[in-house]
Specification:
Layout (H helix, E strand, L loop, with lengths): L2 H15 L6 H30 L4 H28 L6 H7 L1 H28 L13 H16 L1 H21 L12 E7 L6 H18 L5 E11 L7 E13 L9 H15 L4 E7 L9 E7 L2 H17 L3 E6 L2 E11 L1 H6 L4 H12 L2 E8 L2 E7 L3 H4 L9 E3 L5 E3 L4 E11 L1 E3 L2 E10 L6 H16 L6 E4 L2 H31 L3 H7 L1 H4 L1 H10 L6 H32 L3 H10 L1 H20 L8 H40 L12
Antiparallel strand pairs: 1-3, 1-4, 2-3, 5-14, 5-15, 6-14, 7-12, 8-9, 10-11, 13-14
Length: 672
């Protein structure tokens, strides 16, 4: 209690030195590391208390506790730093958004290490220098005795015990594959945009009147206890992952809903009703819905980019894909980013006739420009200022389509030829904006998804066969699934690669510490089994697995590795001093029962309010849930699975020595 504030103060000072802003992301890192800070302090303090119980004076007990724990705790700090350091190598928007988390974790762990071995021992001597009546029963002793009995039974059925854990892990993986995965779940979204987009040239007044009617739908369909407020903007439209759009044909209603805990309906249920009514109202305008999710800015749940050199093909294909999206009940709204511009008159030159008449394309273009934009004929001076004299056709001539044919171009022989003799005039829709991707014209078809029915990843995966077959119907057309789907894949791919490298580095560090290839594998085997508790918790609470849950798992890995490293270190030391037998293994494991239980209780007690408190931050809930419930199950991993794996390793080593004649045959009967 006295050391934790010091660790945080040092961490805040270092964070300021490295220009790390104290915000939600950095606080998230502090919450993640809190369990590990407490864990390290408990390990040193509990070892100190055991030394007091053994009869050592307080000063000697503190010195011995620090000396005995410095190697395993230092190893746990370094391995946890390496594990979180993998986030530094994430690509894309996720890497830029989450880099503060490993920075904060590493700084706090360093501060915690300093506090544990340079400050905490002195505090223990000053404030906890006496131990109570050793003969008096402690609250944990009955639990510890039960643990010894259970562990002895599990060691007697070691292979079956390992098999049970493997089956549980396989079952949890099977359940996880059937669960929803969202990079950042939107179950508790409180902000949304209702966007409308009219034909180019629509008046500001028309757009504004339509928005006023949509406000009536918002007031009718959203209850008072569900609506915190809304703001209507005419001439502007916000778009996730893109530049905001401006123009009189754009409009948005920004809605703020109350927190999920204070209303009965989910955000998807509310917005589905509003969307249904709004689509019937907008007429020739296009309606779209944008939910503002927690986490870093990312693309839309569905964003299909089709590329081709033919705009007619792109227009037709995009409309068919949009119609396909609209058929799906999980798609709340969809839109095409291409917008038709104002009507244009295309001058289609008959080049063979123009050449016969002695007129070039450049001459025609220059004459058209002179008539409609004008040419500078001369410049006059007035009050020492140069003024250009612009010559062009009169306004009434420029505003009439039939005037085009009367324009005359001088040919190479000096004769004036009417433009109508060598060109046709075709009226077409212009393009308001044309995007290009890899130098090809590109249209984007995007949509918002009801994630309770289907996640973005599932919907995108289901669209692939349809799109593969669809683009073959158009020459030179290709497609790309971007938006949130691409952000998810890029982030997870880079995170997986960095995590594999981190695990390999952790393995090397453990090999160096234990001078063994098998013991690091025993410690690291506990990592995947920690997922069992996470999957069970998310399945029971019907939550989506996502990036924040993965961050909670990463913090969980830190605690599990910490406890496992310290446990194996103490087992090695105890077996060396008390004999290589089964009773020594049980007693060594039991000596770590108290600190492991304390670590679990303190960390879980601190995280459960974050996971379940009404009105809590929905951004942090998945992390707290995965960390808390994963740790509850991981306690079993640390206290049962790791000793059982060590027992199998011990039997193998002793049998190998026995066959070589290096030692006596060891008796593995249990002293119950």
């Amino acid at each position: 209690a006295l050391g934790a504030p010091f660790a945080f103060l040092v961490a805040f000072a270092l964070m300021d030195s490295f220009s790390i802003t104290i915000n939600l992301i950095s606080m998230f890192g502090l919450i993640l590391v809190l369990g590990m800070l407490v864990d390290d302090s408990i390990i040193v303090s509990e070892q100190y208390y055991q030394n007091l119980e053994a009869g050592l004076p307080p000063k000697d007990a503190a010195k011995k506790a620090a000396y005995d724990t410095v190697a395993p705790v230092t190893s746990t700090v370094i391995t946890t730093m390496v594990a979180f350091g993998s986030i530094f190598f994430m690509n894309g928007i996720m890497g830029k958004f989450m880099w503060a988390v490993p920075a904060v974790v590493i700084i706090c762990l360093f501060a915690s290490w300093v506090e544990c071995f340079l400050i905490l021992p002195g505090h223990l001597v000053d404030f906890a220098g006496k131990v109570g009546d050793i003969k008096k029963s402690r609250w944990y002793e009955p639990l510890q005795d039960k643990y010894k009995t259970v562990l002895t039974f599990c060691l007697g059925h070691a292979k079956k015990t390992i098999l049970i854990f493997i089956v549980a892990f396989a079952a949890s993986i099977g359940i996880a594959t059937q669960m929803r995965f969202e990079l950042f779940p939107s179950d508790d979204v409180t902000y949304a945009y209702l966007n409308i987009k009219g034909p180019v040239g629509s008046s500001f007044e028309k757009t504004n009147n339509l928005l006023i009617k949509m406000e009536e739908i918002v007031n009718e369909e959203i209850r008072d206890d569900e609506l915190a407020g809304y703001r209507t903007i005419t001439g502007f439209q916000w778009s996730r992952g893109q530049t905001p759009r401006t123009g009189p044909h754009y409009g948005s209603i920004f809605i703020e809903l109350t927190m999920q805990d204070f209303r009965e309906r989910t955000v998807n249920e509310i917005l589905a009703e509003v969307t249904k009514k709004a689509k019937l109202l907008v007429g020739d305008y296009i309606f779209s819905l944008e939910k503002v999710k927690n986490g870093p800015p990312s693309g839309k749940p569905v964003n299909i980019e089709i590329s081709s050199e033919s705009i007619p093909d792109l227009i037709k294909a995009s409309e068919l894909i949009k119609a396909e999206l609209d058929k799906k009940e999980e798609v709340l709204s969809s839109e095409i980013d291409y917008e038709k511009g104002k009507k244009q008159i295309i001058v289609d030159i008959d080049e063979s006739e123009a050449r016969r008449l002695g007129v070039s394309n450049i001459q025609i273009a220059m004459e058209l420009r002179a008539h409609y934009e004008g040419l500078v004929a001369t410049t006059i001076k007035r009050n020492d200022e140069d003024i250009d004299i612009l010559v062009r056709a009169k306004e009434e001539f420029r505003s009439q389509e039939e005037s085009l044919g009367k324009i005359k171009i001088q040919n190479s022989a000096g004769r004036l030829i009417p433009l109508s003799k060598m060109a046709k005039f075709v009226e077409k829709d212009g393009s308001f904006i044309i995007r290009r991707l890899d130098r090809k014209r590109t249209f984007s078809i995007s949509g918002e998804v009801d994630r309770k029915k289907k996640t973005s990843k599932e919907l995108n995966k289901g669209l692939v066969p349809y799109l593969d077959a669809f683009v073959t119907k158009y020459e030179g057309m290709s497609y790309n699934l971007s938006g949130e789907n691409k952000d998810t894949d890029d982030s997870l791919d880079s995170f997986k690669k960095a995590m594999i490298a981190s695990l390999f580095l952790i393995f090397i560090l453990l090999v160096v510490q234990f001078s063994s290839m098998v013991q690091p594998l025993i410690i690291m085997s506990a990592i995947p089994f920690g997922l069992i508790g996470v999957v069970i918790a998310f399945f029971i609470f019907d939550m989506s697995l996502g990036f924040m849950a993965m961050m909670g798992i990463l913090g969980l890995v830190g605690v599990v590795i910490n406890d496992s490293i310290v446990l194996v270190s103490f087992i090695n030391s105890y077996l060396k001093n008390h004999g290589h037998n089964i009773n020594s293994l049980v007693k060594a494991s039991a000596s770590r029962f108290r600190p492991v239980i304390l670590t679990t209780f303190t960390t879980v007690a601190g995280l459960l309010p974050v996971a379940h408190m009404s009105g809590g931050d929905p951004f942090l809930k998945p992390m707290a849930t995965s960390f808390a419930y994963g740790l509850l199950f991981s306690t079993t991993i640390t206290l049962i699975f790791v000793p059982t794996c060590y027992y199998i390793y011990m039997v193998f080593i002793d049998k190998r020595k026995s066959t070589k004649g290096d030692s006596e045959v060891v008796n593995y009967e249990f002293d119950l």
